[in-house]
Amino acid sequence: MAKSLEWNDEYCIGDDVIDEEHRNLFILANTIFQILNPEEEIDKIRPLLYKLYDYMKYHFDHEEAFMAKIKFQEFVFHKIRHSEIIDEMNTIMKSSHQISVLSEKLTEMMLKWVLKHILEEDFKMKSAIKILQQHREQLNPAAVLIEKTIQTF
Q1: Fewest CB within a 10 Å sphere: which of 66, 72, 129, 140?
Q2: Helices assigned H by DSSP within the chain
């Protein structure tokens, strides 16, 4: 039986867009987990798998652009990890012809790759994000104050 992935705000890395995308990955995975049962035909689940796959690729592209923008030191290594996750998802989608196998492989991938990736790899960006935010506030405190005031409305 597939597990449920519980989002925890401790998984946040400090960038609102990336954090929201991570939450959405959890939501998509949990949607699939909820309908995985032995009586379901695998062809009915494939569209959701493709949606998860497409969203993962979208998120990774966005995250990689963000890492390039902040000149993240581990960008190349991180990009390789993203490729490995996409390769694993491809393998799961192509080789899983039974619900039980799909459930097991997808659960393992989401726990091993996605959650672990967020907590170990994406968390490395957290300090870089904080430094950039502090630097921005020091350079232009008035602009930051205006931005924060606008966000409260």
Answers
A1: 140
A2: 16-35, 42-69, 75-95, 99-109, 116, 123-139, 141-151
Q: What is the pLDDT of residues 98-130, one digit of tens each?
A: 777 787 888 888 887 788 889 899 999 988 888
CA distance 3 to 37: 12
**Residue 142 pLDDT greater than 90, yes or no:** no
Closest Cα partner for 45 from 58, 21, 60, 29? Answer: 29
CB atoms near residue 85 (< 10 Å): 19
Task: Report whether 64 contacts 79 (CB < 8 A).
Answer: yes
- pLDDT value at residue 20: 95
- Structure letter (DSSP) for residue 5: P
Residue 141, pLDDT above cutoff 70: no
